[in-house]
Amino acid sequence: MTQAEEFEELRPLLFAIAYRILGSVAEAEDAVQETWMRYATSSTRPTSTRAFLSAVVTRVSIDVLRSARVRRETYVGPWFPEPLVNDPYDDPERSAELADSVSTAALLLLERLTPLERAVFVLREVFGFGFPEVAVAVERSEAACRQLATRARRHMDLGRPRFEADRREREELAARFFEALRNGDVDGLRRLLAADVQMVGDGGGKAPAFARGVIGADNVARVLASTFPWLTRIDARVEAHTLNGHPGAILRDRDAKVIGTLTLDVLDGQIQMIRSVINPDKLGHLGPVADAWALDSEVKRARRSSKD
C-alpha cells in the first residue's frame, strides 16, 4: 500500500477526530490536509501509521482550537458547531460513543473543556485510544493524561443531556414536526414541544436569527408558525436530514441554495431544544449558500403585499 493509500484509508478517522475537537467541518478538513502535508514530507515511515497520523491531526487541531477559542469570545450571539450531515468514520464497537459525541449538545459541552482536556477526552472516551497513544498525541505524560481524562469526564457527565433512545420514534416525531411547520399549524407544533422548549439561532451577526432565543411551547409554536409558511410561499423548502446524529432539516431557497439548518433534541416524546444555524460561514460545506438577508426582505414584502 502506498503512502497516499494509507492516508486515504485513515482519512475518515482523522476527520472524525478533528471535527470533535474543533466543532467545525472546514477547520477539520484543513487539519486533515495539514496532517497529510506533514506525513507526505516526513523522511521516515512510522511503525503505526494510524497512531502517527492520529497524533499529528490531534496536535494540529489543538493549535487551531486555541486560536479559534479567542475568536469565539467575540462571536456575535450563540455559537454552535457547524452542522454535520454524515460522520465519515464508522466503528461498530464504538457506535454509541461516536453517535453521542457528535451531537450538537455534546459538542457544546466539549467547548467548556480546555483544548488539552477536549483532545484527551475525544481520543480516550470516544475513540478508545490507550493512554500511551494519548500521551504521545498530546505530548504529556500518561499520568497527566489520566488526570485530564478524569476532569474532562467529570465535566461531561455533569452536563450530559439525555436523548430519546428510540431512533424510529424520534424520526416519526420529527416528521410530524416538519409537516406542522410547513402548514403553519400552531396547535400541531405546540403538541410536539416540551413546555419549556427553547429555540436558539446562530447567525453570527451575518444573518437574521433569534438573537435572544425563544422559550416556551406557546411562544416557539407561534414564532415558527408565523415564519415558515412565508418561506414556503417564496418557494423555499424544508429538507429533512439527520444532522449531528439527530433529526433536523436543511432549508433551501428556490434555487436550492442553503438558507440554514434546524436540529431537534428529543426527550420523552417531546422536542426539548431547536437550534438553527444561519451563519453563512458555517454552511458552505452543504452547498451554495443563499443570501439570508435578501430572503428576509422578500418574506417581509410578501407579508406586506398580503395585507394590501
Description:
- With 308 residues, this protein is of the alpha+beta class.
- The chain has 2 domains: 3-159, Up-down Bundle (Butyryl-CoA Dehydrogenase, subunit A, domain 3); 167-307, Nuclear Transport Factor 2, Chain: A (Roll).
- The chain has 12 helices and 6 strands.
- It has a 6-stranded mixed sheet with strand order 2-1-6-5-4-3.
- A hairpin with a 2-residue loop joins strand 5 and strand 6.
- Helix 6 (115-126) runs antiparallel to helix 7 (131-138) and helix 6 crosses helix 8.
- The model has no long low-confidence stretch (mean pLDDT 91).
Number of domains: 2
Order of helices and strands: HHHHHHHHHHEEHEEEEH
Summarize the amount of helix as a percent range. Answer: 40-55%
Instruction: Give start-end ranges of low-pLDDT stretches.
Output: none
Strand content: 5-15%
Largest sheet properties: 6 strands, mixed
* CATH architecture label name of the largest domain: Up-down Bundle
What are the salient characteristics of this protein?
308 residues, alpha+beta, Butyryl-CoA Dehydrogenase, subunit A, domain 3, Nuclear Transport Factor 2, Chain: A, 2 domains, six-stranded mixed beta sheet, 6 strands, 55% helix
Describe how the helices and strands are arranged.
Layout: H1 3-22, H2 25-40, H3 49-72, H4 95-101, H5 104-110, H6 115-126, H7 131-138, H8 142-159, H9 167-183, H10 186-192, E1 193-202, E2 214-215, H11 217-233, E3 237-243, E4 246-252, E5 258-267, E6 270-277, H12 292-307
Parallel strand pairs: 1-6
Antiparallel strand pairs: 1-2, 3-4, 4-5, 5-6
Helix pairs in contact: 1-2, 1-3, 2-3, 3-7, 6-7, 6-8, 7-8, 9-10, 9-11, 10-11
